[in-house]
Amino acid sequence: MLNIKQKLNSSHYRYLYKSLFISIFCLILFLAGCSSSPLSKFSSVSTKEPFETSFHGLVVIDANSGKVLHSTNGDKYFIPASNVKIFTLFAAKKMLSKKAPALKYVFRNDTTYIKGTGYPASLHPYFNDSLGVFFLKKQQGISLSLPQNEIPRFGPGWAWEDYDTYFSPEINDFPLYGNVLTAYPENEKRIYPSILNDSVYVKNNPVGREEFSNTFYINQNNNDTLTIPFITAPIFTKKMLEDVLKQDVSISKVFPNSEPQILEGIETDSIAKRMMYVSDNFLAEQLLLMCSSTLSDTLSSKKTITHILENELSDLKNQPRWVDGSGLSRYNLFTPESMVHVLKKLYEELPSEKLFALFPSWNRDGTIETWEELQKPRYIFAKSGGMGNTYNLSGYLKTKSGKILIFSSMNNHFRVPSSKVREEIELILMSLWERY
C-alpha cells in the first residue's frame, strides 16, 4: 500500500505527464496548421529578404459568408494605382444605365443643340462607335454647347511629363477618337483622325508631341502603331466634328433651358470591361464624368466620387482618399479592407458569370486576356495595379472545390522587380485554390 508521500508523488507525475502530452499535442496541431496554411506564406513575406523593408497588406474573405480568413495590414492605407478602377467600375454599375449616354440634345427651331456627357466611345480606335455621327448627320443645324464648368485636362497628382504618353489622354466633355492621334505603320503611314495629317512630322524626336501644341513627331524607323494624346479644346472638337460630318458646327455658350433628350451609345459594360482588361486610364476617367452627367449638368469626377462615398459607400470602415478614376495619381489612398468591401458589394449585386466576365484573368506574368492553363479552369478574376515601387492585385478566386474567395493584396515601397512580388502573390493564390 502506498503511503501518503508516494501517493502525492504519483499524482504529481500523472499531472506532469498529462500536461506534457497536451502541450506536445497542441504544438503538433500548431505546426501542422502553419505548414499547411496558405496564408502563413504571406505572413512571412514582410520578414524575408527582399521584402523586409517594404509594406505589404492582404485581406481574404469568404465571398458568401463574409468570414475573414486572413488580414494583415488590412486597415492600413496603400497607394492603389489601377486598383482604383474597381471603385470606378462600382460607380458605373450604380449610376449608369445599360447603355451609356452618348450625348444630350435639344431641338430648337432649325438647330439641334448638343452637349457632351463625357462619353468616350465616339470614333474611338477600339470601339469605332459612329452612333453619334449617324445621328448628327441627319440634323440640319448643329450647335455644340460648352460645358457649364471647366474640366481639368489632367487629374490631380498626375505626372506632368506624361502628356505625350499613350496612357495619359486629356479629359474632356466631348471626346472624339479617344482623344489620341493614332499612327498606323503601313506602307504610307496612316493618321487617325486625318484632320491631323499636316501636324505630323517624321523626325527622330525625344517626345511624341510638343507640350503646348498639336505638333506630333514619329520616328522614321518606327514600325509600331502609335497612340499620342492630342490637346483638347472646344474649337478643336468643333473642327473634328465638321470634318467628319461635312457640315458647319457652331459653338454656343448657353444650352436651351429645356429637358434634354439623351442619345444612347454602346453598352456601359463594354466600356467598363475594356477599362478593366487593358487598364485604360482614359475610359476610367470618362466613366466618372459620365456618372456625374446623371446627377446634374456639371461634369466632374469629384462630384461622382463624393456621391458614391456619401451614399453607396457610406458604410466603408476606412474612407479612402479617392481623387481620380484611373489610379494615375499617387494622392489616392485605399486600404485592402475597402477593396474587399467593394468587391463583396459587386458580388452580392451581380450574377457571378456577369461579374467575373468584367475582370481579366491573372497569373504571375500579370493581367492576361486569354486563359491558357488547360489543366484547370479560370480561377483568378482580378484587377492589378502597378506603378513605380507599387503592385496590387484585388479580385475573386474560385477555388478547386468551387468556393469563392475575395482578396486584396496591396504592396508598396518595394525596391525589387514587380515580378518578385507577383511570384509571392501567385504562391498564395495557388495555395488558396488548392486548400479551399
Automatic annotation (TrEMBL):
GO molecular function, a single term: serine-type carboxypeptidase activity
UniProt cross-references to PROSITE patterns, sorted A to Z: PROKAR_LIPOPROTEIN
InterPro entries xrefs: Beta-lactam/transpept-like, Peptidase_S13
Lineage: superkingdom: Bacteria
Keywords (A to Z) from UniProt: Carboxypeptidase, Hydrolase, Protease
Any one GO BP annotation for this protein: proteolysis
Family: Belongs to the peptidase S13 family.
Protein name per the record: D-alanyl-D-alanine carboxypeptidase/D-alanyl-D-alanine-endopeptidase (Penicillin-binding protein 4)
Organism: Flagellimonas meridianipacifica
